[in-house]
Every structure is written in structure tokens, then in C-alpha cells.
Amino acid sequence: MLASGAKADSATKRHALGMHHATTTQSDDAQRITLFLAGDVMTGRGIDQILPHPSNPCLYEPYVNSAVGYVDIAEQVNGPIPKPVDFAYIWGDALQELERVQPDARIINLETAVTKSGDYWKGKGINYRMHPANIACIQAAAIDCCVLANNHVLDWGYPGLEETLFTLARANINTAGAGRNLTAAIAPAIIDVAGRSRVLVFALGSETSGIPRTWAASENRAGINLLKDFSDDTVRKNATRIQQVKRPHDIVVASIHWGRNWGYHIPREQTRFAHQLIDDAGVDVIHGHSSHHAKGIEVYQQRPIVYGCGDFINDYEGISGYAEFRAELGLMYFVTLNAKNGELVSCQMIPTHIKRFKVHRAVAEDAEWLTDVLNREGTKFGTGVHLGTDDILTLTWKG
Fold first, then answer.
1. How far apart are CA 126 and CA 250, in angstroms?
2. Domain count, the chain
3. Which of 14, 136, 213, 377 could crosslink 87 through cysteines, CB 3.0-4.6 Å?
4. Would you call 41 helix, strand, or coil by DSSP?
5. DSSP line for 202-249
6. What is the DSSP letter of 6?
7. pLDDT tens, position by position, 174-214
């Protein structure tokens, strides 16, 4: 029988889905935790150039030597962007959805350095940075945690990482996955939820996403929490770290930057690793990212595994190549869990579309396209999505 991950909007929808839902009470709500999860938020490069305090636009890419070029390309396709925009501009319609849902914790993968550093990582080819004075664009969405275990946080060297950590801390934004040494890099972000529970965010990066091995933190060197591999030994090490921090009723999120940018294939080693983190390490949510488009979702032991969230904010507008993956389309993931046992209660997704470097609610046709993708890619996991009349996607799963 299919079980739905969403509160019923109406008796009609319950009947259409062929499933029943318990009546939600105020007591039920008090026992639930809702997380907002987003994939890559890439506020560097072109996005940074339209904000009030743009960085030096100089780039060291093979084909583009100025970040302004990405703004020009986007404007050629969709028209002028009113520069400078205010700090809330890039979030667009997402702010209204966040206000409507009121999630208990807001977690993104921040895929850029936040720095004035000019010490770019030579030979890497792509270098993202946002000026520290633009950090208010992250604050505008009241983000609780920026995951930093990715392949862009060290784009501007160790001085860039140091300034990124300092800037986010000064802005009272939690970070996970990078630090001034290994102890700091492996430490979780801890988000207190109104005294009812805690959300622990452990951030992990994999070389499969393009992270250089040399970026790994050590006890004597800054860097990121880089996975050695997906082996049993790596699972045990992470299980030990999690159990040293976890308390009863904590919600544990493993936020993992892994895999290629393009393509829907999910390697068996990723699935096995995700399952072991749930079985052996007590993880409740797998928040996967790196792919520039949404990938399939699994529900394992009543825990959600989002293998790839896709990009949420980027400056790819007008760039040719990989058009079949529709990287301009994204999803806002609202994952609701039982605070007592960590089991999935619901997962609703808001389809979005990036235009003029701003998040918009996706039109019905695009929401249908995303629905087809998630249904196709979820088949092997026994999951699917139902598209409501409000163009909100609701996850369904077997169990």
C-alpha cells in the first residue's frame, strides 16, 4: 500500500490518492519538526555582481574572465536585471513559501566562498566568491545552516575559507562541514527547535563531486570534512561522531555533497552508504546535493533520502549545454518528521524556476515536468509524487 508523506489538503485529495490520513491536531503539530532543505545556493560570480556590494569580477576560467559576463548572458536571454538588487531579491517567491510553511529549520548548501580574497585556487578552473558585505542575502531568507562541505568553499584559498567562516559566524548563521581544523570541520551545526528538540546537521563531502583531496581538513590544517570513501569503516567513524553528540529525540541530518553534476544515475555505493548511515549511525534525513537538477528520492526505514536536491539559486541562465536536465527548475523541500522517533511524516516540494537570477514559482507545465521526472526516477525506490491543484508536489512511498 502506498503511504503519503503529506497532510491531506482535502477529503477529495485523500480519495484521489487512494489513502487515508489521520486528523491533524495541535498535539500532533507539537510533535513534528519541519525542515526546509535546498540544494546548491550559488550566490557567487554572476549573482554577486547584481547585489549591492559586488566583488572584483576578475575570473580565472578558460572561457570567461569576468563575472559580469554571466550577468550579460542572462540578460540577453530574459531581459535586464535591475542592478543593484536588494538582498531579498534573489529569493523571490521562495520567501512567501517560507513564510507560509514556517519550517523549524532552514538548511542550504552554500556553494561559494564568502570573501574578498584574491588567492584563487590555481588550476581548478571555476572559482566562486561572494563579497562578505553581501551576506545579508543569506540572512534575508533566515537561513539557519549553511553546509560548506562542497567543491567551491575553498575556491579562493585558505584565506577565503577563513573569511567565509568568520563572515557566517558574525552573521549568526550556523555552518557545518568546514573549519579551521578537522575537529571543527566534523562538528555538526546544532539548531535548537523552540526547546522541543534539536536538529543536528553533519556535513560530508565526497571526491566524486569534484572536491580535491587536498581540501580535506586535518588536525593541523583548515579544510572540509572529506569522506575517504563509502566503506564500512567510514560509516563506523561517522556513527561514532554522531552518537557522541546525539541526544534522545534529536533529529540528525547528514548533508552530503556527492556525485556528478549531471545525470540521474545513483551509484549503488551511494545507496548502500545512505542505508548504513540510517541503520548504523542513527541518521534521520539524507540531504544530498551536487547534481544541478533534482534526482530520485527514496524512503528507507521511514527516513527520507534525497539523493540530489538540484540547484536552487545559480547564474547558469542563458548558458547552453545540458538543456535536457532543466537546471533552471528547482524544488523547495519541506520535510516533516515525527520529533519523537525521527520517522517521515510528510514531504512536500514547491517547484521553482530561476529567471533574471530570481526564484519564481514554476508554472503548471514545469511543475508537471518535475512530477514526471520524480515519478520516473522514484520507481526503483517505490516512491512517487502527487501533483496537487496548487502545483505542490507531495511525496508518496511504499510502506
1. 37
2. 1
3. 136
4. strand
5. EEEE-GGGT--GGGB-BTTB-EE-B-S-SSHHHHHHHHHHHHHH--TT
6. S
7. 999 999 999 999 999 999 998 789 999 999 999 999 999 99
The position carrying cell 523541500 is 333
Identify the pLDDT of residue 21: 34
- Nearest alpha-carbon partner for 285 in 318, 263, 307: 307
| C-alpha dist (Å) from residue 9 to 65, 204, 344, 391 | 50, 36, 18, 13
Q: What percent of the chain has pLDDT over 70?
A: 92
pTM over 0.90: yes
Q: Which amino acid is at 398?
A: K
- Sign of the four-CA dihedral 300, 102, 147, 189: negative
- What's the Cα-to-Cα distance from 365 to each of 46, 206, 368, rounded to whole Å? 28, 35, 5
CA distances from 184 to 165, 208, 218 (A): 11, 23, 10
User: Which residue do the cell numbers 542513527 mark?
Assistant: 282
* Residue from 30, 8, 28 nearest 18 by CA: 8
**Using 50, 70 and 90 to split pLDDT, how confident is the model at 16?**
very low
Range(s) of the domain holding residue 64: 2-398
The reported pLDDT for the residue numbered 2 is 35
Task: Measure Cα distances from 64 to 33, 70, 72, 73, 354 in Å.
Answer: 44, 8, 11, 11, 21
More confident residue, 25 or 88: 88
The predicted pLDDT at position 28 comes to: 64
> Beta partners for 175?
146
- Structure confidence at residue 129 as a pLDDT band (50, 70, 90): very high
Taking 70 as the threshold, does the pLDDT of residue 265 lie above it?
yes
